[in-house]
Amino acid sequence: MQPFDLFVKSGLHFADATQALEHIGQEMLARGVVNAGYPAALLAREAQFPTGIALDKHAVAIPHCGAEHACRPALYLIRPAQPVPFQQADDEGSLAVSLIIALIVTDPQQQLVLLRTLFGQLQDPDFLDALLAAPDEALGELFRQRLFSQPASPASSHQQQQGVPS
Fold it and tell me: PTS EIIA type-2 domain location, by residue (predicted)?
């Protein structure tokens, strides 16, 4: 798997998924991770293909859009102060999402690999519990170690973590 920048924020308040997605779009644009079309593309994709996923004890959202909007690969992990309502991916209902993981990829094949890896790890309720309970300063490292410590290509040893100030 190719290297990804990892951005992490905790304790943000969002009234709904749209507000969370607008934040992601503007934050990633300000960081130079995406091009100017990304914020609108992220909102449009979420409207057409919701990303809320119900897991054993919690729900997560994994918003993403086309690789043509990315300047460099990144993940933006957000642990909001309170769960955020997102539409469920596979039905009409809404979910209270406790963790948002925005994927920004430059290679569509990498998106599939990354989604599979994420889904595999998030199926472990202990991992998700650990992410939700981790101190702010440890959240990104815990996520990075677990996600990228699995046997993968040599590129996985070159992961970067860039904290985003709260």
Answer: 1-146
